[in-house]
Amino acid sequence: RTALLKRLTAVEGFEQFLHKTFVGQKRFSIEGVDMLVPVLDEIVREGAKGGVEDVMIGMAHRGRLSVLAHVLEKPYSHMFAEFKHAKIEGVKANAGWTGDVKYHLGREQVVSNEEVSTRVTLANNPSHLEFVNPVVEGFARAAQENRKKSGLPE
Predict the structure, then answer these.
(1) Which residues span the domain enclosing 131?
(2) Which single residue of 15, 25, 88, 133 has CA 20 to 30 Å from 80?
(3) For residue 85, how far is the Cα from the chain centroid?
């Protein structure tokens, strides 16, 4: 229970900081669905224990920034730099994907604890949000291929 409270407190603190610091900027708060972060934590943790190597997530805007910061471990400094439209030292923009709004951006991160690790991917959001579902289906299908050898995938 204490761990859950700490997690929810971190999510709420992040949301309140964004609200007070970046007044008037779109942020699509997680308020009302705060439990999404601990639920995703549990899905990733239990999936990894069961041998899941990849977790693919597609989601609309609501709560996306908190999921990026807390589940995919995107540094707060990077999040705040995006709100300020500042360059992030040491981070090279992806060719062809520059200039997208912060709540369309995705991330891939290996999430690990003392027991196991798994790769978690939050897909970039297409401008037509409903198209994120087939994008994630394609990610999941591609992840099932054995690409360790040259030639056609197995």
Answers:
(1) 1-87+102-144
(2) 133
(3) 19
Asked if residue 151 is part of any domain, the answer here is no
In the chain, DSSP assigns E strands to 54-57, 107-112, 117-122
Q: pLDDT tens, 17-38?
A: 988 988 888 777 888 888 999 9
Q: What is the predicted pLDDT for the residue at 154? A: 66
- Please give the distance of CA 97 from its chain centroid, rounded to a whole number: 17
Residue pair 33/65 in contact (Cβ under 8 Å)? The answer is: no
- What are the distances in angstroms from CA 104 to CA 64, 101, 123, 141? 8, 6, 9, 22
Instruction: Give the number of domains in the chain.
Output: 1
Closest-CA residue to 121 (of 136, 102, 108): 108
Residues 117, 28 contacting (CB under 8 angstroms): no
Instruction: CATH number of the domain at 125, please.
Output: 3.40.50.970
Residue 80 domain-assigned (yes or no):
yes
